């Protein structure tokens, strides 16, 4: 595993990416293209996702951020008309390899959606859903343990511990989103993909989720789509800028926000278009 | 002048009020004050003020005057005595009414010199196509003539009143148009009442049906003890010639109720699993091209009249099963040509499209976000269906099954042809049995005396059927409440 990531690291460096030696590349996209029917929505995207870091995807609406994100755990498979080209790897393994089990992939690369979508079940059942499906708990006590620790990690435990049997849909929007994060954490994924997780939340709930993301990166690798420049600057270490289906520029967040190479990035960040 | 003309004039006044009102309101726009309502609301409000009270008056007046006429005529009829030529007063009343109607066909000249006896009058009426009872009495002729003229006067008065009301309403509506008048709120309130009224019609009709059935049922229970009906295990109503007194018979409900539930159960055992699975396949797995063929085909199946299924059971499936069982048992068949199984099975086939079509719609209505959420956690498609989609769709699916069950319980034709009309009580699904609906039809067809228990039992059976479906609905509602998983 170490040797493999070393190889990838070199590959990344030779590809022009600036990776510090202690950074491990968790997922990698090469020449990723996506077609919806005949229409191409994503063109030749080369992007690395580093382990235990937060990678932010930014860019104007319709530029293909969600599309790229959904490639990473093959959620695009659920759209009949979508077709993916190029290569995406997770720990060096091609995720579009026919030998790969999509179900297993999605357990390793979890997803939190833009709109909170708790199941119409109790809070407990929402969090326990993934572990039950994947058989992660041998007995009820273990399951309880997983639910509790996931809710704690998602900073929802204090609010939810007295109402675990109430429906998840009865929570507020921000609580629901944290419930969805807890649900994703409960299956112990390696990577968590978040598609505008705060777009339905108020500033306080947003701050909580951002704080949470910052903590989560110690154990997980995170890719987040956001429309908020402040959010990208606050939570991410790397930022990738998309425009019209192309990856315009990718780099360390500090650099992207202070001294971007591309004029389009500068314009977008300073709010001149988009 | 018949009431229908007044009705048309009232409506015409209403339309005129609408046009004038809208024009007037439109002319006021752009003034110093901002209009509260758009001009067409003012028009509608004027229409309503003109037409609705007048229409209401016409309806009430019509009903009232026909009630009045009835009493008015009845008061003129001679006292009923033992040797009256007509058996009863209500019969005489009916004769006067038909005579009055027939007289309206004659022209003015003929009416002016009416003959004094019915024997002379009859040919003239018969020539106009009016057939009257031959024992219509002479004394009825002046009563009928008088009744006609009274009701004409009444109608004319009512019509004129309605017209006056319509004109007054229209004037009021048009005069009240000012920029700040709240025509929109008024119109919407009237519409609201209209909607409320429409929904009341369904409820009141149901109540009316139940009450009338209850009434006949009590009548039945005054002849046959309720215990004998509800707990009796023998159905043998013994049709007797009208008027015979020794025709008690036995009216045991149990065999019929058991047959009804048994056949419905078999039908549901066939229809629900197959229908639900085909719905899941169509909603979740089928490609668009497969779906575009299978769904219409299934719906076509739903359109076949049940009698056709019955014929299929009677002619094809029943004999086939009998011969098959004979071959299996080596000699005597253990499946009758008419059996619960045959009827239930065919009924189940008939109900598959009902279950699948309804469930398909319900499953497709579960939001995509639910599917994505589950798939995104690494659940397979079938896990997603089992654990997220079906629970979310459960209330709807229970509703669909319930609807199916009521159809199974209410089905008659298939049962008659496939399970027979013999009221047996058995647990063997390969024997003949029959249902409540079949017996209701049975009891009400043929030449019967309406007041005999043999006929009245049909109402008791109907009420029982109603109660059974009601209980089923309540149970299902309870289940849905308890297990529902609400999604937004
Ligand atoms: N299911 C789909 N079918 C067809 N076209 C699609 C589909 N989903 C996305 N697209 C198209 O692909 C392009 C990229 O869409 P995508 O959702 O990735 O944009 P985005 O960057 O996430 O935008 P936003 O910030 O508004 O969420 C758009 O032009 C969109 O119209
Ligand atoms: Mg998006």
What is the fold-level CATH name, i.e. the topology of chain A? Rossmann fold
Bound ligands, named by name, code or SMILES: adenosine-5'-triphosphate, magnesium ion
Biggest sheet, spatial arrangement of strands of chain A:
6-7-8-3-9-10
CATH topology of the largest domain in chain B: MetI-like fold
The first-level CATH class name of the largest domain in chain B: Mainly Alpha
Strand order of the largest sheet of chain B: 1-2
The ordered string of helix (H) and strand (E) elements of chain B is HHHHHHHHEEHHHHHHHHH
Second rung of CATH, namely the architecture of the largest domain in chain B? Orthogonal Bundle
State the helical fraction of chain B. over 70%
Domain ABC transmembrane type-1 (chain B): 257-476
Subcellular location (chain B): Cell inner membrane; Cell membrane
Keywords (chain B): Cell inner membrane, Cell membrane, Membrane, Phosphate transport, Transmembrane, Transmembrane helix, Transport
GO molecular function (chain B): phosphate transmembrane transporter activity
In short:
Chain B: Part of the binding-protein-dependent transport system for phosphate; probably responsible for the translocation of the substrate across the membrane. The complex is a heterodimer of chains A (274) and B (488). Chain A is α/β, with parallel strands linked by helices and 274 residues long.
């Amino acid at each position: 595993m170490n040797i493999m990531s070393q190889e990838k690291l070199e590959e990344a460096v030779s590809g022009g990416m600036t990776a510090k030696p202690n950074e491990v590349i968790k997922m990698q996209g090469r020449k990723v293209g996506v077609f919806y029917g005949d229409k191409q929505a994503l063109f030749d995207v080369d992007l690395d996702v580093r382990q235990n870091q937060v990678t932010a995807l930014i860019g104007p609406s319709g530029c293909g951020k969600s599309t790229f994100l959904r490639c990473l755990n093959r959620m695009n498979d659920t759209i009949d008309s979508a077709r993916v080209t190029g290569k995406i790897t997770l720990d060096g393994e091609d995720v579009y390899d026919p030998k790969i089990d999509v179900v297993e992939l999605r357990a390793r690369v979890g997803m939190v959606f833009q709109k909170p979508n708790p199941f119409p079940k109790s809070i407990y059942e929402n969090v326990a859903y993934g572990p039950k499906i994947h058989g992660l708990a041998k007995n009820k006590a273990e399951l309880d343990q997983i639910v509790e620790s996931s809710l704690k990690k998602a900073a929802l435990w204090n609010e939810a511990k007295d109402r675990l049997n109430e429906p998840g849909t009865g929570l507020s929007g921000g609580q629901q989103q944290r419930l969805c994060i807890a649900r994703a954490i409960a299956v112990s994924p390696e990577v968590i993909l978040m598609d505008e997780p705060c777009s339905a939340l108020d500033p306080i709930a947003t701050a909580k989720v951002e704080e949470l993301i910052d903590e989560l990166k110690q154990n997980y690798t995170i890719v987040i789509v956001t429309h908020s420049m402040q959010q990208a600057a606050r939570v991410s270490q790397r930022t990738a800028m998309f425009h019209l289906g192309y990856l315009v520029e990718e780099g360390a967040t500090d650099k992207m926000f202070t001294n971007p190479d591309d004029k389009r990035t500068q314009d977008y960040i300073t709010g001149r278009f988009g | 002048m018949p009431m229908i003309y007044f009705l048309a004039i009232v409506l015409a006044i209403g339309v005129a009020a609408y046009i004038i009102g809208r024009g007037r309101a439109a002319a006021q726009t752009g003034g110093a004050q901002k209009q509260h309502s758009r001009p067409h609301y003012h028009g509608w409000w004027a229409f309503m003020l003109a037409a609705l009270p007048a229409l209401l008056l016409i309806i009430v007046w019509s009903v009232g005057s026909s009630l009045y006429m009835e009493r008015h005529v009845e008061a003129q009829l001679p006292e009923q005595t033992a040797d009256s030529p007509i058996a009863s007063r209500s019969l005489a009343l009916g004769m006067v009414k038909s005579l009055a109607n027939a007289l309206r066909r004659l022209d003015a000249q003929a009416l002016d010199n009416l003959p004094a006896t019915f024997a002379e009058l009859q040919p003239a009426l018969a020539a106009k196509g009016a057939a009257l009872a031959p024992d219509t009495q002479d004394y009825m002729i002046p009563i009928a003539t008088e009744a006609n003229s009274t009701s004409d006067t009444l109608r004319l008065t009512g019509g004129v009143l309605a017209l006056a009301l319509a004109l007054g309403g229209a004037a009021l509506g048009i005069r009240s148009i000012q920029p700040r008048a709240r025509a929109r709120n008024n119109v919407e309130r009237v519409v609201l009442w209209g909607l409320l009224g429409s929904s009341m019609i369904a409820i009141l009709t149901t109540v009316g049906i139940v009450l009338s059935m209850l009434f006949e049922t009590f009548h039945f229970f005054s002849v046959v003890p309720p215990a004998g009906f509800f707990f009796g295990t023998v159905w043998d109503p013994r049709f007797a010639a009208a008027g015979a007194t020794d025709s008690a018979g036995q009216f045991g409900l149990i065999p019929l109720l058991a047959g009804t539930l048994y056949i419905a159960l078999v039908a549901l055992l066939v229809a629900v699993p197959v229908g639900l699975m085909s719905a899941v396949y169509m909603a979740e797995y089928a490609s668009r091209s497969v779906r575009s063929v299978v769904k219409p085909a299934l719906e076509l199946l739903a359109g076949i009249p049940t009698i056709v299924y019955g014929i299929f059971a009677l002619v094809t499936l029943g004999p086939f099963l009998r011969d098959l069982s004979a071959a299996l048992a080596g000699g005597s068949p253990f499946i009758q040509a008419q059996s619960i199984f045959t009827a239930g099975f065919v009924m189940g086939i008939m109900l598959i499209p009902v279950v699948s079509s309804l469930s398909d719609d319900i499953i497709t209505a579960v939001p995509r976000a639910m599917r994505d959420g589950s798939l995104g956690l690494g659940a397979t498609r079938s896990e997603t269906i089992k654990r997220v989609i079906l629970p979310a769709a459960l209330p709807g699916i229970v509703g669909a099954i319930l609807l199916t069950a009521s159809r199974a319980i209410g089905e008659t034709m298939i049962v008659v042809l496939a399970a027979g009309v013999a009221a047996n009580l058995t647990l063997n699904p390969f024997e003949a049995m029959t249902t409540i609906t079949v017996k209701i039809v049975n009891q009400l067809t043929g030449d019967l005396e309406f007041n005999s228990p043999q006929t009245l039992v049909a109402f008791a059976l109907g009420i029982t059927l109603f109660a059974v479906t009601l209980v089923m609905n309540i149970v299902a509602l309870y289940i849905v409440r308890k297990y529902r998983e609400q999604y937004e």
